[in-house]
Amino acid sequence: MSDATQLDAWLDTARAKVEAADIGASAEEVGRVESAADGVAFVSGLPGVRLDELVRFERGGVGYVSSLNADTVACVLLDDAAGVLAGDRVTGSGEVVRVPTGPALLGRVVDPLGRPLDGGPPIDGEAQEPVERPAPPIQARDFVTEPVKTGLLVVDAMFALGRGQRELIVGDRAIGKTAVGVDAIINQKNTDIISVYVAVGQKSSTVARVIEAIRRHGAPERTIIVVASPSSALGLQWIAPFAAATMAEHFRDRGQHALIVIDDLTKHAATHREIALITRQPPGREAYPGDVFYVHARLLERAAKLSKEHGGGSLTALPIAELDAGNLSAYIPTNLISITDGQIVLDSALFQAGQKPAVDVGRSVSRVGGKTQAPALRKAASMLRLDYAQFLEIEMFTRFGGVTDAKVKDRIARGRRIRAVLSQDQYAPFRLVDEVAMVLAVQGGVLDPLPVDKVPAFRTGLPAALDRAAGGVVESVEATGTLDDAGRETLLSAMTALVADLTRSTSEPSAPEPAGAADGG
Which pTM does this prediction carry? Predict the structure, then answer.
């Protein structure tokens, strides 16, 4: 190509750029950082900036406006505070904080801004949605009637969850709160529910275990993991649950179903309190600002079941909160209990006694309950909670002396088998038919001849025994959620045979040791 041809091509390109240029006067507000510390920058010279507006700093950092004062605005940083210095230029963007949404996030580990943390390529989302979105109005909502199976017998049988429900998981530190939420995510492996796990201020080792568990036992290709570690900027930790809710709402608003586990809102409340104290907002009870209830309410109200006219999708929320020495009446737990549709309370004494999951059936409740249970499980478990509660009360009193009444002895024996059945290994969710069968077995007396220490072996061998002896009933219950009388008898027969095998193996003497085996001869 000759020099003249190259010059003509360049002139054509230059003319096109000049013609497309928007030539005219423009105004821009430029502020200055007055001070920056502890993840918050105070900025002057931005009189037109709005609350929650995204602002950009001279060295490339970003933040959002958290409070407006007479002469300055407080900006919570979303990046490393070391990149913001006093005197730096600040400009408003006219936008709020947004995150990418869409199927591109599935199977990824990201930070609250949608930036990858798993070493993969950048997220190319369908859209950029605000982290703060209004909750669906009452007119757009529908009744919560469809189940969300957790695979945990103690939850599904007594505190059933529904699509669109908000159920709080609460208990002391390190007694299995995260395990309940992760098991619920893992159990969606064979359902149409998309899961979102958001870690707020959790240790890296804890998050790594959760990621590994989901990848090994669940459906990672239908799960989004959002991580805001303790070392992340304050702003990232604060927006994390809101950003994760926006990612989940993308699927809900398109007629799909999503589940979000927020781990945990106690640390999120502490982050909100830290920001409030740094920005000099008036402290209230336990030094939390007065709007902490509103912060969590507007987050959890976004979980809903939409009506058919609005697509029929749902977003179910399982927020987690930590107690201090079992104090359920503390400020943040009572706030969350009043916001949610029930709570699963974990008890440290049960956990230390080896009962896992350590669910306190006396203090746990679901305000949706049996409306979402499969008919077969609802019918089988109708008396389970009452029987177990009566056993716990009787057991407490019988610790002070011997029991002579035969009926009381039988009730205690039955209760101990209920407790053994309600125990469950982590990452081992039960199918619906397994849950129905276990409740039928313990309530129908099938397990009475079986020693309590053999109940775990019964739980382990039950799925294979049912598939082998009652395959047709298994398929029917899993497909329809119902169980007729003939199917019930088939299940009871299969379980009776399993109990007989386990009892026989217990009673049979061990084979004699060959002569000379002890001395190697």
Answer: 0.88
